[in-house]
UniProtKB/TrEMBL annotation, chain A:
Protein name: Molybdopterin-dependent oxidoreductase
Domain of life of the native organism: Bacteria
Region (Disordered): 1-22
Domain Oxidoreductase molybdopterin-binding: 35-179
Organism: Motilibacter deserti
InterPro entries noted in UniProt: OxRdtase_Mopterin-bd_dom, OxRdtase_Mopterin-bd_sf
């Protein structure tokens, strides 16, 4: 690979062209967690979307798995500076889950089994940008990586891709989640290096 | 199926109110591991301070919390109810400390 100087202007860039600024490449899959790992039995699992009007759309595991799923290969960028490229997942697009949901809300507050929360604009969940993933690398998603199912929003830092996802609350205001309340950025775009609240 | 949206923390028997079983992972340290980062912020040794959990009311020394470190920040959880007691996030520029999981912290008055 040819070495191309990026010069001295702007923020330091990663040497790898596929890496956002300040990230390094890893080949393993580090497990980060703010608490114990919930074990969620499939017979009690449900994914629920609640609109700002209080309308609920809910899928149990059987109904969820009957939805059309797709295979995807995406890059992951963790705010702790590791990136993992070309990861393989299978999941249901949020476009499918939100298809029949009537809402004027602009934001989604994501809630997980175990109490984790995060937040993001609703438009970041649409147009093929986000999935509820249930397989990683051809296997059922392991609990330590968020199984039975996790949100996957690969264009934002990985803390937005909530493990053990339980549902979305659609809201008119952007309500900070767990790490957003604790000092991390409200949006978290890795390509703009939006790590902390003041970035 | 349940579409309960409760995400509260495990009951004393280890099962969460939503029916999920949670198993504490070995991936936490005791709160004494937070002594260094906290000493940079406070002149007293906070690991000996007695904190009262705002969620369950249990009281104990800060050194006895469950400290999760494999995360984007330090997360201290109550050993009784596992609710979050404090978070500590540090960037090169700023430190963000949240102690909102404590109703009080008690430590000897200096002097």
């Amino acid at each position: 690979m040819a070495l191309i100087s990026r010069g001295f202007s702007g923020r330091p860039r990663s040497d790898e062209p596929d890496l956002p600024p300040g990230q390094y490449l890893t080949s393993d899959f580090p497990v980060l967690s703010a608490g114990p790992t919930p074990r969620v039995p499939l017979d009690t699992w449900a994914f629920t979307i609640v609109t700002e009007a209080g309308e609920r759309h809910s899928w149990d595991w059987k109904a969820f798995r009957q939805l059309p799923a797709e295979d995807l290969t995406v890059d992951l960028h963790c705010v702790t500076r590791w990136s993992k490229l070309g990861t393989s997942w299978r999941g249901v697009s949020l476009d499918t889950l939100l298809e029949d949901v009537e809402t004027a809300a602009e934001y989604a507050h994501v809630r997980s089994y175990g109490g984790y929360t995060t937040n993001l604009p609703l438009e970041d969940l649409l147009d093929g940008q986000a999935w509820i993933a249930f397989e990683y690398d051809g296997e059922d998603l392991a609990p330590e990586h968020g199984g039975p199912a996790r949100l996957l929003v690969p264009h934002l830092y990985l803390w937005k891709s909530a493990k053990w996802v339980q549902g979305l609350i659609l809201t008119p205001e952007d309500e900070p989640g767990f790490w957003e309340t604790a000092g991390y950025h409200i949006y978290g775009d890795p390509w703009r290096e939006q790590r902390y609240a003041g970035d | 199926m349940t579409d309960s949206f409760s995400t509260s923390l495990p009951a004393p028997d280890g099962s969460a109110p939503d029916g999920t079983a949670t198993v504490p992972e070995p991936a936490f340290l005791d709160g004494n591991a937070a002594a260094g980062p906290l000493r940079e912020l406070f002149t007293v040794d906070l690991t000996a301070a007695v904190g009262t959990c705002a969620s369950c009311g249990d009281a104990g020394p800060l050194g006895g919390v469950r400290l999760f470190t494999q995360a984007p920040g330090l997360v201290g959880r109550c050993p009784g109810c596992e609710d979050v007691l404090f978070t500590l996030v540090r960037s090169e520029r700023d430190t963000y400390l949240s102690m909102k999981g404590f109703t009080t912290l008690r430590f000897p008055t200096a002097g």
